[in-house]
Amino acid sequence: MDATALSRRSLLQAIAATMATAAVPVGWAEVAQALDQAHVHAQAGDSTISFLSAAEAADIDAVASQIIPTDDSPGAREAGVVHFIDRALATFFSQLADDYRAQLVAFQVAFHEQHPGVESFASLTSEQQIAYLKKVDQTPFFNTTRLLTLLGMFSLPAYGGNRGGVGWQLLGFEDAHVFRPPFGYYDRDYRGFVIEPAKIK
Fold first, then answer.
1. Model pTM?
2. HEC sequence for 124-179
3. Per the structure, how many domains does the chain have?
4. Which pLDDT score, from 0 to 100, does residue 5 have?
5. Is the preceding omega at residue 157 within 30 degrees of 0, hence cis?
């Protein structure tokens, strides 16, 4: 196995571990249902920030961008993760909204206590953000944000995140139906089978 494949495998294992241990009151069934509802909302074409304030969205976007940073590949910011999180809290993960907002407030209050005079977490340099997040990476706010960031980065683009399929590109995943033996290979030329093209926005 080459280094690239190993890296992707490690990333997928980390995602699975994060979702399994995240301190949020939802399970796999709820996640699946939430993503299905997200698909409906995404099809409505609404990509505005509605639940979060501009300041809240900026801080969450900054945190998400450190969880999956932009380097040689697009990160959480390019994937529009903050829009996914905003939509999630306003709709299909609304049961988390009150607790998450309280966690965010606690995060911001603690930040200002340690950084008096600084406008916001989002206003820090990347290095300063990383240093601060290392102090709070076991808090409920960070754990929930990490889970939502992963969902927004790697779920189907039609669900509201993974803009342009950039999360899939990071994993090397191609959203294409391919007949591979022995599954379906025998009917690959069947004219009655129509595959709708992936709708990536």
1. 0.67
2. CCHHHHHHHHHHHCCCHHHHHHHHHHHHHHHCCHHHCCCHHHHHHHHHCCCCCCCC
3. 1
4. 43
5. no
